[in-house]
Amino acid sequence: AIMTMLLPGINVIYYGEEILMADNLAITWEETDDPWACNSNSSVYQEFSRDPVRTPFQWDDTKNSGFSTAEKTWLPVHLNYMTRNLKAQSLATKSTFKLYQHLIQLRQEKIFKEGNFRVKAINDELLGYVR
Fold first, then answer.
1. Nearest partner of 97 among 54, 49, 58, 43, judged by Cα
2. Considering the entire predicted model, what is its pTM?
3. What is the mean pLDDT of residues 104-127?
C-alpha cells in the first residue's frame, strides 16, 4: 500500500482494502449468487465464483456488520467482522485504515503531486524508487 499510494498517477483503493477485508471463502453453494458460479455445479462453483470478494462492507461489529438492518444480506458477511471493521480500525491507535488516511494526506504534498520520480530494479527481488 505504501509503495503504490506514493507512486505518481491515480491510485485506486479496492473495496475493503483499507481495512484488510478478507475474501469470504466460506460461501456455500446454496448462498452463491454469482452467475458464473451458479452455471457450474456444487463441486466446482468456488473456482468460478466472484462472490468471496463481493460481500458486504464491514462497517462495525453489529448484526450484518452494520451494512444492513435486514435479517439476512445477499451474501454472508465474513466471520471476522467482529474485529475487522471500519469502526474498530477508526478507534484503534494504529490500524491499516489510519495508514491509508495518512498516505492519502501525503499524496496532497507538492513533492508527490509534482516531484521527480526515479525507479531502479536492484535485483530480481528488489525494486526501489525515489520521489
1. 58
2. 0.85
3. 93
